[in-house]
Amino acid sequence: MTTTSTNPTADCTDWRTIRRHRITAVFGTVAANVAVWAVAVPVLGADLSVRTGSGTIEVRPDAVAVVTMLAGLLGWTLLGLLRRTRRPARTWTWIACAVLLVSLLGPLGAVTAGGVATLLTMHLVAGAGLIPTLARTARR
Predict the structure, then answer these.
(1) Residue scoring higher pLDDT (118 or 83)
(2) How many structural domains compose the chain?
(3) Is residue 69 situated within a structural domain?
(4) pLDDT tens-place string over residues 39-88
(5) CA angle at residue 35 from 31 to 36, to 5 degrees?
(6) Is residue 3 included in any domain, yes or no?
């Protein structure tokens, strides 16, 4: 005879650990992208001007932080929506990689080659920080 018991405290601790890892992934990725900006713009002199329909805008560190945070929180939300699927981590990883590939088109609107390189780097840093870390926290 096999008996299984669920320990509510263990489940709560497990969820707290998962949440802590996800928060660390999001904030760590935000910090990494702001660090890329801090090295590229003031130190290396990269011009992060991006063409828009009405002119150009300058990519500032607050915008980098907000957009990276939103990407992380949207990824977290999608992972939550996929948690009851058969393979949530695998499904999430495929979707996140597809979104990352599409997002790499955005930096091509930068005015200078240095801006394109810096923005591509930021997108790749976000993907490298969020995709594997959030996927590791997926559970059925």
Answers:
(1) 118
(2) 1
(3) yes
(4) 999 999 999 999 988 899 999 999 999 999 999 999 999 999 998 899 99
(5) 120
(6) no
